[in-house]
Amino acid sequence: MNRTQLIEELRRIVGPRGLVHRQEDLLTYDADGCVMDTGEPHVVVVPETTAQVAAVVKLAARAGVPIVPRGAGTGLSGGATPIQGGIVVSTARMDKVLEVDVRNGRARVQPGVINFELSQQLKPYGYQFAPDPSSQKACTVGGNIANNSGGPHCLKYGITASHVLGLEVVLPSGEVIWTGDGTPQTAGYDLTGVLTGSEGTIGLVTEAWVKLTRLPEAVRVVLALFPDIAGSSATVSQVIASGLLPAALEIMDRLAIKAVNDMYKLGLPEAAGAALLIEVDGVEDGLDELLHEITAICQRNGALEVRPARTLDEQTRVWAARKNAFGAMGRLAPTYYLVDTVVPRTKLPYTLEQVGVIAKDYNLPIANVFHAGDGNLHPLILFDRRNQSQNQRALEAATQVMHVSIEQGGVISGEHGIGVEKQDYMTLLFSTDDLAAMAGLHQSFDPLDLFNPGKVFPKGKGCGELAALRRAGVEWGALKAAGMM
Amino acid sequence: METNQLLRHLNESVGAEHVTDEPTACAPFSVGGVAPALVVAPDSIAELAQVLAAAHAAQALVVPWGGGTKQRMGGRLAQAATPLLVVRTQRLSRIVEYEPADLTISVEAGISMAGLAATLAEHNQMLPVDVALPAHATLGGVLATAADGPRRLGYGTMRDLLIGIQVVEATGRVSKAGGMVVKNVSGFDMMKLYLGSFGSLAIIASANFKLIPRPRAAATVLCSFPTLEAAFGLADAIQQSQLNPVAVEFLSGLNETAADACQLAVLAEGLPAAVERHVRDVSQMAEKVGAVEVQTLRFDDHAAFWQRINDLPQVAELAPGEMVLRLTCLPAEMGSTLANAASLASRGGLKLLTDARALSGVAYLRLAGSGWQPLQDYYNALVARWPNLAVLAAPADAPASLAGWGRDPAGLALMQQIKREFDPQGRLNPGRFVV
Ligand SMILES: Cc1cc2nc3c(=O)[nH]c(=O)nc-3n(C[C@H](O)[C@H](O)[C@H](O)COP(=O)(O)OP(=O)(O)OC[C@H]3O[C@@H](n4cnc5c(N)ncnc54)[C@H](O)[C@@H]3O)c2cc1C
């Protein structure tokens, strides 16, 4: 089937309005928020129904063309980038909240619903969708599910996986199944669980039952300022260790403070080397006590100042500054490369010190804005993409951050996923047998490697090969020696 | 002679004193009335891998065995001409890594839940999944069966707490996933695959968790009601409020008198002021919906009460003619479902004890009758309307139709494909899960 024929058949399925195929229009779809890798799609479809998606998938299988699911394209690991071309399936027109079932604590949504819109729609009922990535005003629930995304409030409420009850997915075979409806402990394997976080490689989510979280009765937000990042990160690990569980613990360092100050007029003293945003929530009773104890820990660690955000307006402004901090980086450099790694919380102070060393070694400024309570780092390497040497140094610095994180007992991604960005670093963390088990799961769903091929697993040999080797029981060491990996 | 050869291999791997083929020693490890030919207890993950590789070579069927408290669960074990091997995890009971300040732990699968809790308590921490018979139940067994506890309402289940895992597959291949951090999307979430897979894909060798600090205060409000509807009236009121109790448990069949036939136990944990607020509000709400008695339990009374509740669904010991079911449904349907379950039981002449997570949609039903036929009738009537009905235990003489997991789940074909991929020869717990 040639491209023209493919486009014709797709047009029959999704209609002329559901098709994007002009060269200049395809450019929008050649990358996600991670600009380090790009790839041009053959064609983009924007279906409106599950049946259309299923028909597109069956056609793709027949044509031997990959399917690349795409939400809002805010991903930061190249997950939605059509690295091998293919049909990009955009969920932009599947953007409705279909049902809010408060009594069962669930809502049925289409994958293209914007995360923030969902919570806005739930608010009148007194509920929210708890996962709140900083990109929540743009990213989709389908993208959140595929990436098992986090957000500041995941510290208390858990990551996306804890908020997905059941999925309608189109499988690579074109078959459509529902994996659950909110009934707990159903028989068989946890398909909902394995699909969540699978980065669009084994199923395309066309509808989801998500869990509703009651809005808390009371919320308190304070901003603690420290002379340096060490004091703030020590505070975080002491707060966690002392058994106080805030709703969120987020840190911004000096560079980030400067950027958001310019943009949000927070008037933070630029002498401050770090700002720690603390939120506690729950019933009103006991909340002030809790905050008081946390404040005392801040002070013991040398806080310069602890500022309560008293009004809702002040709270919103502080949070906006945090959530838009990446955007504010534009004030400091033309490009940033965000590295998402995690370390055990007690290793934060040391790891951040090392990030500072890496900035010096590679001679690039690095800002830090991150989910400190979870030990989830986000060094933002500032550089100019047009400068070859800076480009190279940014990549090397990022690799160095991953090495340091792993050395400290951490991992290479806390919430942004592997995609293409980190696929070659998977071997730093996992043995061949570990990867082969993942490949076994992958093969059970997608034996032809139709969905989002060339992602997650290390480049070179695909997951099909990994799984085949696993089935054959071949020792990995031997494979490596034979130059197969 | 496969058995003899396997025995020799096992002796070499783990030492003869940890392997037995003595019929009397093997008998206590029977599954569905079938005694294994061999029982082996490896001492390390490396030994476990050797055991499975040897079993694989001998084409043996393998039943993983933790504390043996739930071996009555599942479909009937598929029989085969090859030897049946029980692999005990009991000696794999080490704490691999525990960093209290990080609130994370890595432990081997054979540790008892009580043993683990004791270690964590020394550091004022907990893994808030309360299971039946914690002195016997092992961590691996709890994971394999995806057991839940009353506090799932507040803290979630193992699904929310498990951050890393190491398994040994049927061939002896060892693999791991996840890590020792609380947030991680590096690679597929294999934890979700093995959790609740009933030893049908691999044997869980060790697991990592995120821990929770023990609450500074806790109290239980125990409310008694004459009717199920009144008790669920309180559950609904709590669901609609902004209170956040960590458990709301519905109980019936514990008391003989009609006036307090049903109870709702509401557990609050956290800061002292927040706990007192819950005690105050819940007590008032209970009186409004017609509670005949409202008690507040604290300290030892409270702890003893919950241990008794946790043990209610146990299936290690069955009285004659007893059957235990787990019924799950949408949370809002729990009240009407249990009303139906109760009237069906009384029509069938069965005694019923109910323990339900009132706001989570999970109920454990303990039924007693004479002979298996009334139990079978009851099961058939229930499963026709509630497909998610697992038989946790049935009388020994009941037929195979009174076993298993309720109606086939959606996506069964895909699950079977996963099973084939991980265990192509069907050696791990064959017939018991995803068949
Ligand atoms: C400024 C900024 C801040 C961010 N902050 C956070 C944060 O705090 N926490 C966090 O976790 N992430 C964060 N991210 C990353 C990103 O926003 C999240 O990963 C988000 O969930 C992606 O959603 P999306 O709709 O943009 O998905 P896309 O980028 O379009 O896709 C992401 C992945 O999901 C797949 N996919 C999309 N839809 C489907 C579907 N329906 N079915 C199957 N697969 C699908 C894609 O193939 C791809 O692999 C941030 C990004 C930016 C730019």
Provide mean pLDDT of chain B, rounded.
Answer: 96
Radius of gyration of chain B: 22 Å
Low-confidence stretches of chain B: none
- Multimer state: heterodimer
Radius of gyration of chain A: 23 Å
Q: What is the tally of beta strands of chain A?
A: 20
Provide a descriptive summary of the structure in words.
The complex is a heterodimer of chains A (485) and B (435). Chain A is an alpha+beta fold. Chain A folds into five domains: 3-90, Uridine Diphospho-n-acetylenolpyruvylglucosamine Reductase, domain 2 (2-Layer Sandwich), CATH 3.30.43; 97-214, Uridine Diphospho-n-acetylenolpyruvylglucosamine Reductase, domain 3; 218-326, Alpha-Beta Plaits, CATH 3.30.70.2190; 333-407, Alpha-Beta Plaits (2-Layer Sandwich), CATH 3.30.70; 430-481, no CATH class. Chain A has 18 helices and 20 strands. In chain A, the strands form five sheets. Chain A has a seven-stranded antiparallel sheet, sandwiched between helices. In chain A, β5 (97-101) and β6 (106-109) form a beta hairpin. Chain B has helices spanning 2-14, 23-26, 45-57, 113-121, 139-144, 152-155, 158-161, 190-194, 228-240, 272-288, 299-311, 334-347, 373-385, 412-422; strands at residues 19-20, 38-40, 61-65, 84-88, 95-99, 104-108, 125-126, 162-169, 174-178, 202-210, 212-213, 217-225, 247-252, 262-270, 293-297, 322-328, 351-357, 362-368, 389-393. In chain B, the strands form four sheets. In chain B, strands 15-12-14-13-17-18-16-19 form an eight-stranded antiparallel sheet, with helices on both faces. In chain B, strands 5-6-10-8-9 form a five-stranded antiparallel sheet. A four-stranded mixed sheet of chain B has the order 1-2-4-3. In chain B, 58% of the residues are buried. Chains A and B meet through α7, α8, α10, α16 and α17 of A and β9, α8, β11, α10 and α14 of B.
